[in-house]
Amino acid sequence: MDIDIQQLRLLTVLAEEGNLTRAADKLFMSQSAASHILAKLRQRLDDPLFVKTRMGMEPSPLTLSLLPDLQKGLNSIEMALSRAKPFNPVLDAKTFNVAAVDYFEFFALPQLVPVLEKEAPNVRIAIEILPEKRQRERLESGDIDMIISVDQPSTVPKYYQRYDWLDDPLVGIVAEASHLPETLTLKQFLETPHIHLPNASTDPIDDWLLQHHQARQIAMIVQSYAIGGMVTAKSSYLMCVPSRIATSLLTMLPLRQVALPDGVPPLKLSLTTHHRFDNQDSVQWLIRQILTLK
């Protein structure tokens, strides 16, 4: 049966995305090309493979039965090829799938772009925003290459490899016209409504406050530092952000920086891979690029 690897990849990615356009984007092909591949597979396998529903494209029973073996086979092929030929970033085409917090997108990606353009013109990075449980599932299956996250006081499974990336002190940002002083007391910190960006299931500030039997007022929850900064600039709210993020936001928006009360812990970030996959030359190359960003 004449079926190539790219066709099989479409099946696995479409099962994850539930949407043909998103699946095509993730595979860096046009929607028409993805539709053509799906039509050919349906004809060859004599099965609809995916059915449109209100929830998106749902896999057929045949597809569900094929997916586990397909994914294992694709991972094995990629690992075998990577071992057969050392990764050459100047020449080789590679897409890295990275589950990451907003910090990585905001701080690291702009610094990685010049490296990619100069040293790895055929390398692409695809960022995925996933719940923590889903991150681990996709890391173990090889669907993502690494997780970049906020460190948490939890035990890392023995088959994971965690790399310490950086510590970033937390500071406050407020609108330029805010009445808040340059250094906040704990009382001012607790009385001021906060804009909050969740980076993990637990938060270092909230954990710290809990130890002192305190809690802050969360007025709004956002999903990116950029949006949080825009809202902060037009409000009387306070947003706690890492120092490196604050430096960038202050150049973009009418904001000023304030010091938080003594004792607020820094944000610690790490990079996690799976032992089954992180010995690949390509993955080690990307790890080195990220760990040099400070």
TrEMBL record:
Q: Which organism is it from?
A: Marinomonas mediterranea (strain ATCC 700492 / JCM 21426 / NBRC 103028 / MMB-1)
Keywords in alphabetical order = DNA-binding, Transcription, Transcription regulation
**Transmembrane parts of this sequence:** none
What are the protein's GO molecular function terms?
Answer: DNA binding; DNA-binding transcription factor activity
Name the protein family.
Belongs to the LysR transcriptional regulatory family.
* The protein's name: Transcriptional regulator, LysR family
Q: Does the keyword Zinc apply?
A: no
InterPro entries the record matches: LysR-type_TF (IPR050389), LysR_HTH_N (IPR000847), LysR_subst-bd (IPR005119), WH-like_DNA-bd_sf (IPR036388), WH_DNA-bd_sf (IPR036390), YidZ_PBP2 (IPR037402)
Question: Which residue numbers delimit the HTH lysR-type domain?
Answer: 3-60
Cite a single Pfam family from the UniProt record.
LysR_substrate
| SUPFAM superfamilies for the chain | Periplasmic binding protein-like II, Winged helix' DNA-binding domain
Is the keyword Chloroplast in the record? no
